Amino acid sequence: MPRFKNKTAPLLLILFALLGLTACVEPPQIERAIHPLPEDAFVTDAPLGRYGGIFVLNETTQPTTFNPQVPNNLSTSVLLTRLLTPLVAFDPSSQTYEPALARSWEIGEDKKSYTFHLRRGVLWSDGSPFTADDVIFTFDCILTEIQDPESGKLRPKYPSRYYKQYLINGEKLRYTKVDDYTVRFDLPTVYGPFIYDIRQPILPKHKLHASFEDGSFTKQWSTQVAIESPEEIVGTGPFTIFSYKPGERLVLTPNPHYWKIDQSGQRLPYLDYFILKFVSESNTAVAHFATGKSDASGVGASDNVWVKEAAGTYGFTLHDRGPSSSVNFFWFNQHRGSDEAGKPYLSPHKLRWFTDKRFRQAVHYATNRQGIIDALLFGKGEPLTSIIAPAQGKWHNPDLPRYDYDPEKARDLLIESGFYWDAQGKLFDREGILVEFTLLLVESASFDTIGVTFVENMKALGLSVKMERCDFATLLRRTDDTFNYDMTMLGWGSPDASYDPSGSKALFLSSGQFHQWYPEQSEPATEWEARIDELIGLQERTLDEAARVAYMHEVQAILAEELPLLYGFTPYGYVGVKNKWRNVFVPSAGTTLWNIEEIWTPEP
Amino acid sequence: MFAFIIRRLFSLVPLLLGVSLLVSLLMYLSPGDFLTQARAAKDIDPAIIEQQERQLGLVNADGEATAWFVRYGHWMANISPVKYGPWVGQPEEGLSFGWPYFGESWTYKVEVFTLLKQRVPATFILSLTSIFFAWCIAIPLGVLAAIYKDSIFDRISALLAYAALSIPEFFLAILAVYFAAITGIFPEGGRSSVESEFLGLWARILDYGYHLILPTVVLGIGSVAGMMRIMRANFIDYMQAEFATTARAKGVAQRVIMFKHVLRNAINPLITAFGYSFASLLSGALLVENVMNYPGLGQLIYEALIREDQYVVMAGVLIGVVMLVFGNLFSDLLLGWLDPRIRQEGGAKNSARGQKANLVWLVLIGIIALQILLEVFAPSLLGMTGLVLKYIGLLLVGLLAVACVLLVGYIVFTLFRRLIGGVLRRPMGAAALAVLTLLYCGALFAPAISPYPITQQNLVKPYHPPTGYAWKDGALHAKLYQKEAVGSPTYIHSEDATAPIVWFSKSESYKLFGFIPMERKLFQLETEDPAARIYLLGSDATGRDIFSRLLHGSQVSLSIGFIGISITLILGFIVGSLAGYYGGTVDFVAMRLVELLMSIPGLYLLLALRSAFISPDFSPTQVYMVIIVILSVIGWAGTARIIRGMTLSIRNRPFVVAAESMGQCVPMILIKHILPNIASYLLVAATLAIPGYILAEAALSFLGLGISEPSASWGLMLKQSQGNMIVFFMNFWWMLTPGFAIFVTVIAYNVLGDVLRDIVDPKMQTR
pLDDT band at residue A15, thresholds of 50, 70 and 90? Predict the structure, then answer.
């Protein structure tokens, strides 16, 4: 047995071996152009690229399933768009809906029927042909009903949140197969947002039909399948799963049968591998990007300050997306009803304050939102004026009152409304009741800071506000069921680049479940709420987009004047992408890598 | 040997039953379940919820909620390899055999076993490497420190050991991640690099090893100090043992004596502790895994606990316990192999305990069965009993608190005067005492010393650096700073912008000690501009004064250890002394209980208890109280074990026998005769245990489960600085001062504890 004189020698040997191995092992080559192109291939208009390259992206949340019909989280649904595609997709660069699996579609005379013509020659990633049967199967999965053995009522066989989406005015959407490449949808009424709703990822019937029949559909395509036999998860998306290591990474590789090609007839995507690396802390994810270890990352407004300093060293660019699409808002409980015992949800004096428009406006004027932006976000953000964030393009009404921080104005409004201050500076209402209430917050570090600032601002105005924390479920129960709260706050993130006001209809309508300040009213409690109801109805029953936008602008103007929701602020979004990537187009909202299949690099 | 292993494995069964039952009960007690959030969301159809409830077995066929013990029974029946059908998940009729089934993860819709299979190896290897890392550092250092006792080397290594002991693990992990990010020498977290996907087997293993280095160091360093101390003490002991003298007399070389004779004996306790250090590493791993993004068991269980994914938590904790027991088994085998004496003792002792053990388990199972019967046949009775128990519990806690104050008063009164001289004569002791006095004074007088209220923001001055000072016009001035530009994190000071500091001037009114109304504060800035502030230690993200928050935070962080340890000592004393005094069955029951508590990784138990007893609408004071109680409930087990040992040795002394024969009652004997004899030990133990509470509070707050805004505690402040990478990358070092404060306090307590031990125990002095 050889003996090493020097104790470090074996160690060094191992190190060299490691270096040698890393140097000589190359990722397996991706075979291109082995399958013929589909007859109806989608030809992108993006500049031509070259094959090759590994794109590494940090993800903070892990997929809980690969089955789109199992309740999942946001990042899972974004991930699923890489594997599965819908009939129609939204293009953030042109802000329009463009054909995906459907080559084209037409709307019937009565504006209630939609006929989709599917692309011919498209294959699933395992080589099976894609036909109208797959589309029908997908909608069957959502809408098939069975009789409940106990209650005898009809209920969805596989309940999912999509089920309600396709109940239009309480009636189910009807869908029929015309021929192998044509599907027709019939709506009960004229329904503007239909094209927004129809972006359902299409599932492969040949893979899932058996489980659909025997009832094990929701157990299909679990994370375990992705670990053990990723080839089972077939799709029409740009990628398929190469390997999945929970807690570590998901490696995606091009779908050899993808239906998009570039102008020179090369099948997309250009990338060899697309790797999602799981990093549970968003801070760590940003740090990874800032030290050159991943190719793209969202960068928060407060991190922008230090991340941009590393841009030169690690060769990346920070793209400014402008105000983000997330909104947050406070609201006062304005529930006028009472519980079963006849006790009002809100004591009369509180109801009097909270339903007083001037009181709400005063509170809004006294909240130093710009201060929070300056401190927490280093000025990289702006106060919100509407529930529809500026990132939502045309739908956002740009001419709304801003309610900038103005404590003087707040005092004037309160005086006007009959409030007065005592010697200690405490606020009393016209009947001599001390103004104090509780702010209910979800436990979270960022809400804490906002809440603490709000409490301080109110203290300066003479209002005593107590902070109370609860978990999210409790908060929802108290705001939606028991109504025992004074004021609370929520954030609302819309992940999608495409926006349609019908998505938040339940908030605008006075009868809606998310009409937060006074939900599910039988009759609109105020005139302005009645007017909003009317406008929402109008915009839904027209297909003229300009008219819909105009209606929505009016809705926002009413909300800004009446102020049932006291808007918070929105940070500016930044996205860093390494300079070596071409064809990167950063939209103002939604996922940055929406066109991942077109992205390529000259230096793989 | 084989029989021994088999017996050990059988002893595992009741332990696993006990632990899983406890965890299951705690999960049941914590409000809400897996579907709570879905139920609250209005857009999810109630039909979906109902279906899910049935699927997950939360309700039975009639739509009634299944009782926790029924669910537990199903789970147990599924795990058992002997199955009897038809039952849930067991379609076959009659008796059959099958693989254990651990249930399904509700979040991932995968079998729990496969989920664990993905995670356990990572944590197992990490724990193993950290123990070996700790051994590799601690044993040589301990030996060297023993050989060169009282030399400079000894002192320096002691100091390093204190330092290692005093840094909260998660804080070290944060620093490590930052270090890795800056230098790029080590990977900053994760278990493997992206490239390893395409590497060969050996290269991949090396890649895993490379990623292990940093977590190993972070996790291992905490246990180095303790091991080193034990090693040093033992080595010194055995250096003077008879066999060493004999060997020396026979002319054996010093080197051979040291390494062949002394070391082999001195290493025993480390090996004995192997099992328990394994368990404690599992708790540590939770924090380190979370910060360093290491996909292990800790991360999984933590997430599952938050989401109430019940079976994952239960199975995960069980795995932890199994790992502990196997660690113990392994250490026993290792000891037997190393030390022939132990090999021979082993068998007899265990078999004598066997019968009694059966009895105890029978009683325990009987109690649970009774409870289950009650719950089945008279559910309201149990609710009533619960209510009564709750009030009795409250009463007990109240009494306990009073008793604790009395005990602490007693110890301080009787011992302090005796010991203070000794402490002050030693420079280390005097220094530690001075530091602690200063810290506690700071906490007591916090409202008077701190220039601003802790909630007062200054939104135009976030991340303000600590203020500089200037001497101007015969008075001390503080420099004033302006932001370089709007949206910039840097501040500049223009030459003559200063404001004078005024002493004992009037400010807003406050109450000192909670009842003395005062108006004057130690120092204030005399200025017209409300945004101009004096920041001794800079400001945080909303411009609040860190110095003020640090002082107020110390009220929580410093008192939590003090009160907690009092409760722990009382509980430990009652259980330990009774067990030691009576011996027999009482002793046996108490010690099994202690073992049960010690075998669950501490942090998991803490989290489970916390979610069972704290609801988010608690006020900060309530949270604070509950945290103290939980911490002490977990902590008393170790103390009870040691007190039992001491009582056991004292109870046969003549003065105890004399008191007995005079007819004194048991409590009297315990308090008048036994307590004074172990009081000094209690003091030492208390001093050395307090840091544990401070660190635990910090860890809890760090996980966002401790004290919450607008109150302050050191752990919370540290979390807030960690939540922001900007603190590191823009070098806002003053945000990390809470970490430094924890460090100083813990060091001071450790030094004081060691000095006290030297004084109290002259025999230990030689160590």
Answer: low
Q: Rounded to an integer, what distance in angstroms lies between the CA atom of residue B11 and that of residue B573?
A: 27
Among B139-153, B360-374, B544-558, B723-737, where is mean pLDDT lowest? B360-374
User: Which pLDDT score, from 0 to 100, does residue B263 have?
Assistant: 82
Please count the CA atoms within 13 angstroms of the CA of B329 that sit on its side-chain side: 18
Which residues between 453 and 472 in chain B have a beta carbon less than 8 angstroms from any beta carbon of chain A? 455-457, 459-460, 462
Of A107-121, A331-345, A504-518, B589-603, which range is least confident? B589-603
Q: In this complex, do A156 and B203 lie within 8 Å of one another by their Cβ atoms?
A: no
Tokens describing residue A319: 């793209």
Report the 10 Å Cβ neighbour count for B327.
Answer: 22
Please indicate whether, in this complex, the C-beta atoms of A26 and B51 are within 8 angstroms of each other. Answer: no
Residues 6+ apart with CB under 8 A from B531: B458, B460, B461
Question: Radius of gyration of chain B from Cα atoms?
Answer: 29
- The pTM assigned to this predicted structure is 0.78
**Concatenated DSSP letters of B383-441:** HHHHHHHHHHHHHHHHHHHHHHHHHHHHHHHHHHHHHHHHHHHSHHHHHHHHHHHHHHH
Three-class SS of B651-673: CCCHHHHHHHHCCCCHHHHHHHH
Instruction: Establish if B291 touches chain A: CB-CB under 8 angstroms.
Output: yes
Contact predicate B319/B312, CB 8 Å: no
Look up residue B625 and give its two tokens.
């109280």
Q: Find out whether B311 and B111 touch, Cβ atoms under 8 Å.
A: no
Q: With 70 as the cut, is the pLDDT of residue A355 above it? A: yes
Nearest to B673, CA basis, from B647, B640, B636, B644: B647
Q: Which of A222, A471, A514 lies closest to B616 in CB terms?
A: A471
Give residue A124's pLDDT band: very low, low, confident or very high (50, 70, 90): very high
Give the other-Cβ count within 10 Å of B220's Cβ.
26
Token pair belonging to B263: 């070391």
Tens of pLDDT, residues A49-97: 888 888 998 888 888 788 888 766 777 888 888 899 999 988 887 778 8
Place of tokens 């601003």: B452
d(CA B689, CA B715): 18
For A144, the 3-state DSSP assignment is coil
**Sheet strands (E) in B426-497:** 469-472, 475-479, 482-483, 491-492
Residue A135 CA to residue A222 CA, distance in Å, equals 22
Residues 714-743 of B with CB under 8 A from A: 719-720, 722-726, 729-730
> Cα-atom radius of gyration of chain A, to the nearest Å?
28
SS3 (DSSP) at A89: strand
Strands (E), A191-344: 239-245, 249-254, 260-261, 273-278, 296-299, 316-323, 326-332
**A151, A374, A376, A382: which to substitute to probe chain B, counting the most B Cβ within 10 Å?**
A374
Interface test with B, best of A14, A249, A369, A572 (most B CBs within 10 A): A249
User: Which tokens go with B566?
Assistant: 């009092």
Is the ipTM higher than 0.85? The answer is no
- Per the rule left: phi > 0, alpha: psi between -120 and 50, beta: everything else, B513 is left
Task: Output the six-digit token pair for A541.
Answer: 């029953």
The pLDDT score that the predictor gives to residue A182 is: 93
> Which ranges of B30-168 would DSSP assign to H, the alpha helix?
36-40, 46-56, 68-79, 112-147, 152-166
Flag whether residue A544 sits within 8 Å of chain B, measured between CB atoms: no
B468-509, pLDDT tens digit by residue?
888 887 788 888 888 887 777 788 887 778 888 888 877 777
> Could you give the CA distance from residue B723 to residue A287 in angstroms, rounded to a whole number?
12
| B80: three-class secondary structure by DSSP | coil
CB A425 within 8 A of CB A418: no
Put simply, the chain A residues between 245 and 264 with a CB less than 8 A from any chain B CB are: 245-249, 251
